[in-house]
Amino acid sequence: MATKQKVASPKKSKGFTGIKSAIWVMLICLCLGYGFWYFVLGNPANFAGGTKEGAPINLMGTVYHGGVVVGLIFTLLLTVVALSIERYFALRTAFGTGSLTKFVAEIKAAIKANDFNAARAICDKQKGSVANVVLASVNTYVEMENTTGVKKAQKVAKIQQAHEEATQLEMPTLQMNLPIIATIVTLGTLTALFGTVLGMIGSFQALAAGGGGDSLALSQGISEALVNTAAGIATSWVAVVAYNTYTNKIDKLTYALDEVGYTIAQTYEANHTEEA
After folding, report:
1. % of the chain beyond a pLDDT of 70
2. Helix (H) or strand (E) holding 143
3. What is the average pLDDT across 25-54?
4. Which of 81, 158, 95, 172 is nearest to 132 (CA)?
5. How far apart are CA 99 and CA 119, in angstroms?
6. What string of H, E and C letters represents the secondary structure of 40-58?
7. Are residues 226 and 67 in contact, defined by beta-carbon separation less than 8 angstroms?
8. How far apart are CA 224 and CA 47, in angstroms?
9. What is the DSSP string of 54-80?
10. pLDDT at residue 112 tops 50
11. Exposure string (b/e) for 73-104, b if CB count within 10 Å is 16 or more?
12. Do 73 and 229 form a contact (C-beta atoms < 8 A)?
């Protein structure tokens, strides 16, 4: 008769695993973005005559005259920066305390030597998402060794299942808030284009109202409108770099998980014969 043992549920990472309610981060960035646009860039000292209606006398005044859309672009930029910092610390927790490459090498060596106490000790020392997934697989390996009346193929499948379940438990934490950064990659450029078009419309309306001919007013309006384009491109650039950087880190972590999971399953299959 088969001996059934309940597979222990994999534990989740301890420490900082990310901010689940990113909406609060975005609201704070909204306040900071528009506060910076209105109070810092809109400081009367940045304009001729000491009033916001005057001609800009420096770059900050020119950026302020880019319009209210500039405040929205600053909001997007601050959101990217804030969520990038959040992802940095979350992934730092996920990777654990030591080198991921060294951890994978040590785990594979311990498993091939059938030293599962050492493997558990290495996981406890490393901590993080990779260590949690590996520990769940190791625990299942040991439990399958104490389970009788079950075919080897089923035991190997159980080990693989435990590994996949532990991975699925960790992945949402790793990828959290990255979709927001990915959205801002496009949204930054589109918002900038929207602000530029509004600025150009306002410039041509002012030019038409003045009876034409005022090339200085037109060139000034165009330069102010293009502020939106420059700010939006900068925001999208930061978002692209952040998204690709953290996606690459997650890919490395996932590859390490797959490598160790394959090693554990294959080690069990190689070290055990089919039960009668």
Report:
1. 88
2. helix 128-145
3. 93
4. 95
5. 16
6. HHCCHHHEHHHCCCCCECC
7. no
8. 14
9. SPBSSHHHHHHTT-HHHHHHHHHHHHH
10. yes
11. bbbbbbbbebbbebbeebbebbbbeeebeebb
12. no
